[in-house]
């Protein structure tokens, strides 16, 4: 056996893979396999199989320790003083029932045997309860108090899973406010008078659940589809508040709508007004654009025509 083959065998037995051995000696994996096979070594004699075998041995040791621990717990449950007392009482009752003559105390013997059987069942049930209580895993409950330092609390400080979830919801809510409402989250909360919390329902921000945001998002969706742009939430809110037709319960007043003053100009706080629905219909209705200003149409893929 040459020195190179011996070194390769040592590396393989120490747990190195054939590909790594080939990189160290400038050979391919197939050539390394041939050299090791010439020495009578297979994949079970070294390489990654050593790590797998070590993990299997560790799992077997843990399983054996667990079995021993469970057996000790079961024996401890059977050695409980109350269980022993019930079992001894049941044995005495059985012995006493067999000593009495059956003809003279038939009912008494039957009651004693039944009582002994019940005590035996109670003792077994007690031992099973003690064993189950000893082997039950403690349930990890999320502490809902921010920065909790309670003794034994598994979720403390910045590693609290609940705090991480709230931080993720807060980040999503900030991105949604910047993208959809066009204003910072704090300003949106002040305008909608909402608490500083992401909300109780999963996936739904608290600010987005408010009536002003729902009404604004509905109008913004239609306006962006028709015109490509719309007012920011701040301007939309100011226009409705100055009109006096905004209700805190139902949102924008019934019978009123927001349209442009001049349809040739883009949306803006100075180019928006609140008018009755009748005036809107006279101005063109439908898409809120006077018919004189409609210069063409665009067709979506589904065949729906949009006036521009």
TrEMBL record:
Protein species of origin: Acidithiobacillus ferrooxidans
Name of the featured protein: Uncharacterized protein
């Amino acid at each position: 056996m040459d020195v190179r083959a011996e070194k390769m065998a040592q590396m393989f037995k120490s747990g190195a893979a054939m590909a790594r051995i080939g990189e160290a000696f400038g050979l391919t994996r197939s050539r390394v396999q041939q050299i090791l096979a010439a020495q009578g070594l297979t994949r079970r004699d070294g390489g990654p199989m050593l790590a797998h075998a070590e993990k299997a041995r560790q799992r077997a040791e843990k399983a054996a320790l667990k079995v021993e621990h469970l057996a000790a717990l079961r024996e401890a449950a059977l050695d409980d003083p109350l269980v022993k007392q019930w079992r001894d009482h049941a044995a005495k009752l059985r012995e006493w029932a067999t000593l009495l003559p059956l003809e003279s105390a038939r009912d008494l013997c039957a009651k004693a045997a039944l009582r002994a059987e019940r005590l035996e069942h109670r003792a077994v049930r007690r031992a099973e309860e003690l064993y189950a209580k000893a082997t039950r895993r403690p349930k990890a409950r999320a502490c809902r108090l921010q920065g909790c330092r309670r003794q034994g609390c598994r979720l403390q400080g910045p590693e609290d899973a609940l705090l991480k979830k709230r931080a993720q919801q807060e980040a999503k809510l900030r991105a949604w406010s910047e993208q959809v409402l066009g204003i910072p989250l704090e300003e949106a909360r002040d305008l909608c008078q909402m608490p500083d919390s992401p909300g109780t329902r999963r996936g739904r921000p608290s600010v987005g659940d408010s009536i002003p945001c729902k009404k604004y998002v509905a109008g913004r969706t239609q306006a962006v589809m028709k015109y490509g742009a719309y007012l920011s939430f701040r301007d939309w809110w100011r226009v409705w508040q100055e009109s006096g037709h905004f209700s805190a319960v139902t949102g924008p007043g019934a019978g009123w709508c927001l349209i442009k003053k001049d349809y040739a100009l883009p949306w803006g706080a100075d180019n928006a007004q609140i008018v009755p629905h009748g005036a809107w219909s006279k101005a063109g209705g439908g898409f809120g654009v006077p018919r004189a200003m409609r210069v063409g149409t665009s067709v979506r893929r589904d065949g729906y025509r949009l006036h521009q």
